[in-house]
Amino acid sequence: MKNQNIDDKIKQALAAEDAEIYSQFAEEPSLLAQSLQLLKTRNRWLNVMVMVVVTVFMGVGIYSLWMFTQSEETKSLIGWAMSFGFSMAVVSMLKIWAWMEIEKYSTIREIKRLELQVARLTQRLDDSNK
User: Fold this and answer.
1) Count of domains observed in the chain
2) Which stretches does DSSP call E strand in the chain?
């Protein structure tokens, strides 16, 4: 609620042309759009590799879980359980890494919005001083 009030105050303080520019950038992209943005960055090869590894380890985890339910010996139960646990740990860590990348790009987007506002304010101050 407080953030909404602050956003409304900022929009009221901006000039009409600034408000139009601000409204173009004010809308947050969806989670899917943010995830797909990872494939458009400078490190896209690394992000694609992470997505492939996550998919592979998810498949290994599902297969391990299936084999765990089919096993009857204690030794194989332990082995398949460890395989499942390791696979899910790898998937979890790589998902956390991907979320951190998404958050990084979200932070960069906010900084660029602030830069735009500072540049517009500087321009307006220069125009008023002339």
Assistant:
1) 1
2) none
On whether residue 119 sits in a domain, the answer given is yes
**Residue 55 resides in a domain:** yes
Domain that holds residue 89: 49-130
With respect to residue 26, please indicate whether it lies within any of the assigned structural domains: no
Is pTM beyond 0.85? Reply is no
Q: SS3 sequence, 73-107?
A: CHHHHHHHHHHHHHHHHHHHHHHHHHHHHHHHHHH
Average pLDDT over all residues of the chain = 86
22-30 contacts: CB < 8 A, separation 24 or more? 22/113, 22/116, 22/117, 25/109, 25/112, 25/113, 25/116, 26/113, 28/106
Task: Report if residue 5 sits inside a domain.
Answer: no
Tally of CB atoms within 10 A around 61: 19
CA distance 80 to 69: 9
Using the predicted structure, report yes or no on whether residue 14 has a pLDDT greater than 80: no
Supply the Cα-derived Rg of the chain in whole angstroms: 24
